[in-house]
Amino acid sequence: MTVPQRRSTRQRSAVSAVLDEADGFLSAQDLHARLRARGDTVGLATVYRALQALAGEGDVDVLRTDDGEAAYRRCRSAEHHHHLVCRRCRRTVEVEGPAVEAWAQRVGAAHGFVDVEHVVEVFGTCARCAAAGTGPEDAQTTAGDHTRADGRRV
Q1: Which of 70, 86, 98, 144 could form a disulfide with 91 if both were Cys (CB 3.0 to 4.6 A apart)?
Q2: Could you tell me which residues belong to the region Disordered (predicted)?
Q3: Region label for 139, one of left (φ > 0), alpha (ψ between -120 and 50) or beta (otherwise)
Q4: What is the pLDDT of residues 94-116, one digit of tens each?
Q5: Nearest to 18 by CA among 34, 29, 2, 40
Q6: pLDDT of amino acid 144
Q7: Which residues, 6+ apart, have CB-to-CB distance to 67 below 8 Å?
């Protein structure tokens, strides 16, 4: 069965361009705000549709924030991986976790499960934010960072 190819639109290209530039995860609202700041006229509903399509195609990684909101990032690796995410600036590093992979398989097998899958996201404070003395308790937005405007952390 052939998977239908989505047509590329100006709006989807704009969403993709912002994702390409981002160093960390962005919510749909954050991405929409960046588009508006660049002068792109893309509606929030269109941003959500584009992100859902990109996630469905495996082109973006998705994680859930503390409050359950989805955050998106351009997928840098086609292989299974995990993320190390800074709580302050959202800088993200893709990491492999062979010990986690083995553990997940052992736990599944011990309970009679097969086709075991898992999602692991690791959160902390990156060296740059730690050196600047900005941790999750300092949730004020500063120019150029990736923290939500409302101060919520990933």
Answers
A1: 86
A2: 133-154
A3: alpha
A4: 888 888 889 999 999 999 999 99
A5: 34
A6: 32
A7: 152
Fold of 79-142: Dna Ligase; domain 1 (3.30.1490)
Q: Please report which residue ranges of the chain form alpha helices under DSSP H.
A: 10-21, 28-37, 44-56, 98-110, 127-131
pLDDT digits (tens, 9 = 90+) for 60-87: 988 887 778 899 988 776 777 788 888 8
For the entire predicted model, the pTM comes to 0.64
Residue 127: exposure state from Cβ atoms within 10 A (0-12, 13-18, ≥19) = exposed
| Structure token digits, residue 110 | 């011990």
Query: Dihedral of CA 36/40/46/51: which sign?
Result: negative
Domain with CATH 1.10.10.10 in the chain: 9-75
Distance between CA atoms of residues 10 and 41, nearest Å: 10
Residue where the block lists tokens 């299974």:
80
User: What tokens were used for 42?
Assistant: 């893309």
9-75 belongs to which CATH class? mainly alpha
